[in-house]
Amino acid sequence: MSRCSEIIIFSYFCDRLSYKDKIDIAKLPKHIAIIMDGNGRWARQRGEDRVMGHRNGVTSVRETVEAAAEIGVEYLTLYAFSTENWNRPQEEVMALMQLLVSTISLEVKTLNENDIRLLAIGDLSSLPADCLMELNEAIKATSNNKRMSLVLALSYSSRWEILRAIKSITADIELGKIQTSEITEQNFEKHLCTSGFPEPELMIRTSGEHRISNFLLWQLAYAELYFTEKLWPDFRKEDLYEAIVDYQGRERRFGKTSAQLKPHS
Ligand code: FPP
Known about the structure:
- This protein is an alpha/beta fold.
- Helix content is 46%, strand content 14%.
- The chain has helices spanning 3-16, 19-22, 39-45, 50-71, 90-113, 129-141, 158-174, 185-189, 237-248, 258-261, and strands at residues 31-35, 75-82, 116-121, 148-156, 202-205, 224-227.
């Protein structure tokens, strides 16, 4: 067989591979963060109430968690409710909180069966009491799981988180635990909600919006950003895998030049 036919056959089979098959497991992002956007528009397009979009978004949450765990992602952070979301109509906020409570309590068994640990970041004290109780119980019940950490960002905003970190580090200075001159990126990070997590290497936002919306501003400093037109309730496993394949095709330079990354070429 000629070299040319070999190449044609090879590209034919590559085209037929699923995105999952195209992923290089050795180069997986350890941490993926997602802004789940477009629930409201998805429902409106169907002449339905926005809350119906959120309910359908739960299926995408399930699919995405399963997809990430299946291939070995270590951390998956989902922006489920921002500090700014409290300003939505009261009925929508209440419905979202109820949905969170019911989803969390329903999913604990599956999380345990799949060895997935649940964590939460954000101003959790502002959540309704039943929601917080359900959340804390699920966090405790899954705390020994090792395969993947599923982090829910709830009543979260990055500016809130950074200010909280500044207040906490200032308190340590006042107590004499640390000097101002000793503040470094490493010890500042210990005061963030994500202390101990690897930095997200890939951030996905659905629904065609190209914004970060107060999400993990410090942590996303070097993340690759991926935007898809898909509305969140339509997001499925292959969409996550497509984003990972796209991420793996990028050159991550961290401020260096391309030549520095490939010194022998
Ligand atoms: C953004 O869409 C989505 C949210 C504010 C909520 C996300 C919540 C879920 C998917 C439900 C449950 C989640 C978990 C983790 C159990 P939008 O309402 O802003 O949509 P729009 O931009 O089209 O209005």
